[in-house]
Amino acid sequence: MIKKALLGLAAVTMLSVAAGEDIPDFSNYSRSQASICFDENFNSDISRWIRPGKNRPQSFTVQPHIGVTGSPGISVTSSDQTNLLSWKVPVKVVPGMAYRISFHYRLNNLKLKTPGRRRATVIVCTLHAKDKNGAKIKDFNMWIPAEDTGNELRFFSETVVMPENANPDTYFSIHVDWWHNGTFIFDDFTIASLEVPVELQLVHPDRMTMDKDGKISIRYQRNGENTPENLEMLIEAGGVKKLARFANGVFTADFGRLPGEKVQVKATLFNRSERKIISEHEWELNNAADTVPVSYLDAHHRLILDGKPFMPIGICIMMPMNDTHFRRLQEAGFNTIQVQPMNGTGIGRRQRGHNTSENLLSYINLAARYDLKTLMFLQLMIPEKEFIRKDLERAFNGKTALEDIIREIGMTLRGNNNVIGYYLADENTARELPSTQVLRQRINFADPTHVTTTLSNTTTFIDSYIHTGDIFLFDSYPFNHQRNPGVQGDLVVSDQNFARIAATGTPFWLVPQGFDWARHPARQMFGSTPEEKRRHRIPSAEELTALPLLGAIYGAKGFVFYSYHEVFVHGDNVQPGFSDIFWPRVVQAVQVLKQLEPFIMSTESVSQVAVTSTAGTLRSRTFSANGKIAVVIVGIKNETNNGEGVLPAGKKFTSLYGRTQIDGSKFTFTSSGVNYDVLISE
Asked: What tens digit of pLDDT does each residue of 226-272 get?
């Protein structure tokens, strides 16, 4: 039904384009509301928060390594009868709209200030509803159970409906409960409307650089849904307006060769019968159509590097490197490193004050001697990260202004075939994404020869992230995140996130876990002493391999492990000899990916082998390459994961890792906990 409707829509739209006379006037169209009115992960500037002034009791402080992914969070300890003052932040809401308020929290050493009183809950934050005169209508208080959570960061979510007579300008506050003493830790606050609006993804051109044909293609996004009936798209480029054709989930218009260095593009998705704009977005594209790219994406979401498909198997590095380190990476099978372009990438020492094109290129060239391409960090190059950048990366080639630094780095790396692209966002909040899109545009004008990537640890607002890079990276670190010694993780949440990403149709790389949470000196949630940290279970080799294989099942075409320095610096500092134990487990995951690379990067079509779960939960995918077939199976739960199926006739299959019994064409997969296998034809 939907398919027929879409074909009909495509036909109608093409007639409209041909006629050239059906472009609507949007001046009296209504618009959808924004989805996220507030989000905060304490990784950036907190100046918009209204905090207690001088000579007032201070409360919360931002602390490193206490957040959801070992990143910063906010903390306060109350120890006496004093009522610590709240922090608050302005937010803008829509009267009558329903909002979901969510956050992570941890409570430790919770005690009543007045013994004998019974308080079963703790108030932690409030969304305030005021009328247009500023008078209080209602306070929406968020209460959580009054109990210690130990080392576990718990998730809270609640829905509120703003009154119809509410003032759109209000505020949100976080509190220390007035009845309790103890330590309160919070991270990842989000206030989002339940009606998540659509977003639009620029599918073509990649690298935001116009090609000679002037084709512009844009995909509609709404949680992976098909494009609804009766929607059309108007694309404006260089002052020319065209109704786009619709086919295969993409709206396309051809503008030919446009004049000028830059092309301003605006896409508007609309419902003509309801006179409503569903979504709209703007881009600034580079019009250097004659530029020859070093890296770009093909129609199958594969990275093409120097004209050939390239599957990044990389690792993040935030430490000085030398030949020994690079040789270790080469021997392990890595082909990519992800590094800071400035301080912290010194060859054997930190390069503070030595940030020049010459030093950067010498580092990249040294890595290239060991067959390692570079993915370049630029995630600090937005205004919200200035307070970090100015401390770590004061200048480049003597330039100190943000735009000048970006231009210098881009011009330095333009056309460099040892670089695969740029890394622009790192778990950013939604409010930082407009700045990240500007960063994408700036680096593209300085260097239109490389792709850009963007990273998040959440899929909550993935539809907003797609504007900030050609490729979406997702970091998934599921093992040991419970912060409880001995507890094994599973891939259930990772599986849900991968499914959400795959539904958008956006190019996708995975940042798999290649470290252990507890082996970091500063992550206090795992204990304050090395002895306490060492009680935590180290992720197994099977778990570390199953995770990227699950990503491949959902379409990941690149893998960048986090991280080298966590193993060889932090891990060994907490547990001497840790890297000797853990590194071979990371290497095993890399070797499995290298073995499957021809299949993951293949464009051959193949019938999927059905794998039926008989216990636990399995995910699988069938790949074909060069006439051979590979069936990848992953058990995602921390329990027995068994399954069975029937292999294609006429081929003999082998279980690469011995977890599957094959009897003729029938097979039975068996695993205890998170595990995997690959069935491959001869």
From this structure: 666 789 999 999 999 999 999 888 999 999 999 999 999 999 999 99
Question: Which residues have a Cβ under 8 Å from the Cβ of 182 and sit 6 or more positions away?
Answer: 77, 78, 107, 108, 109, 110, 111, 148
> Strand order in 136-145's β-sheet?
87-92, 169-174, 121-130, 136-145
Q: What amino acid is encoded at 362 in this protein?
A: S
8 A C-beta contact, residue 153 and residue 525:
yes
Measured CA to CA, the distance from residue 543 to residue 361 in angstroms comes to 36
**Whose CA is closest to 583, among 349, 333, 373, 345?**
333
Residue 47 CA to its chain's centroid (Å): 25
Confidence of residue 482 (pLDDT cuts 50, 70, 90): low
With a pLDDT cut of 70, the percent of the chain lying above it is 91
Measure Cα distances from 91 to 38, 45, 48, 50, 127 in Å.
6, 16, 10, 12, 9
Up-side HSE of residue 436: CA atoms within 13 Å toward CB? 29
Cα dist from 589 to 6, 123, 445, 554, whole Å? 42, 44, 37, 17
Secondary structure (3-state) at 544: helix
Give residue for tokens 């977005």.
Answer: 281
Segment 339-346 mean pLDDT? 60
Task: Read off the amino acid at residue 325.
Answer: H
